[in-house]
Amino acid sequence: MLRIIEIEARLFVRDRLNSLFSLVFPSLLLLGLGAIPALRTPDPQFGGLRFIDSYVSSVVVFTLVFIGIQRVPAVVATYREKGVLRRLATTPMHPARLLVGQLVVNFAAAILSVLLTIVVAYVVFDVDLPHHPLGLACAVLLGGAGTLALGLVIAALAPNARAAGGWATVVFMLLMFVGGVYLPRFMLPSVVVKIGSYSPPGVEALQQAWLGTAPDWRHLAIMGLVSLVAGTVAARTFRWE
């Protein structure tokens, strides 16, 4: 298992464009938005906070959704299309180990990206550090696990890399929309806000932990359930070729 994780980590680093995009782009997005003076001005619509303060949780949503939904299915589907998985099938390795290796490496990348976002927000824009660090850690853990598990389901079911990319893009756009990345959540219909609160990676839980109190346990529980169910489906439907 450790050897598999080591190899997946090396492959992640060698894919320089995608790895740098995964790690750095969320912070660059925050820097770009923060450069707009109006977004650094306190606004009653955000409870007297600045737009940049309330949007940090949406940047974290982007990080987790991009890595889990866009990157993971593309990598695994490409392995299958190029025959890498067919060769691995001749070994005693259980497919669950390959999926776990993907989870560990990509989740580590997501954690690094979130930490970089926190540092940039605090140092450059004086955004408060998370008010509930443990709650934020739980939200990132369960929300990230949920998005990665959904990505693995796409990887397991997609017949080829092109199909995996298409399916992933649809799910990516939906999760970004309900997660308040495209539009601030106060501009979204109430039903969409509700869906986003319970859908991985759980923007409501992230925002609660960052700006105020501990996340709602129901949000965390549902994201944990999604992770468990989707992870089980991915492991049972995984195909070597």
Question: Overview of this structure, please?
Answer:
Keywords: Antibiotic resistance, Cell membrane, Membrane, Transmembrane, Transmembrane helix, Transport. Belongs to the ABC-2 integral membrane protein family. Residues 17-241 form the ABC transmembrane type-2 domain. The structure is a single chain. The chain is an all-alpha fold and 241 residues long. It has one domain. It is 75% helix and 0% strand. It has helices spanning 2-14, 16-34, 51-81, 84-88, 95-125, 133-157, 161-178, 190-198, 203-211, 217-237. The radius of gyration is 18 Å and the shape is elongated. The relative contact order is 0.16.
Structure characteristics:
241 residues, mainly alpha, 0% strand
Helix-strand topology string: HHHHHHHHHH
Query: What is the average of the pLDDT values?
Result: 85
Query: Beta-strand percentage?
Result: under 5%
Q: How many structural units, i.e. domains?
A: 1
Cα end-to-end separation:
21 Å
What structural class do you assign from the helix and strand content? mainly alpha
Radius of gyration: 18 Å
Helix content: over 70%
* Number of helical segments with 4 or more residues: 10
Rough outline: elongated
Count of individual beta strands = 0
- Could you list the spans in which at least 5 consecutive residues all have pLDDT below 50? none
Largest sheet: none
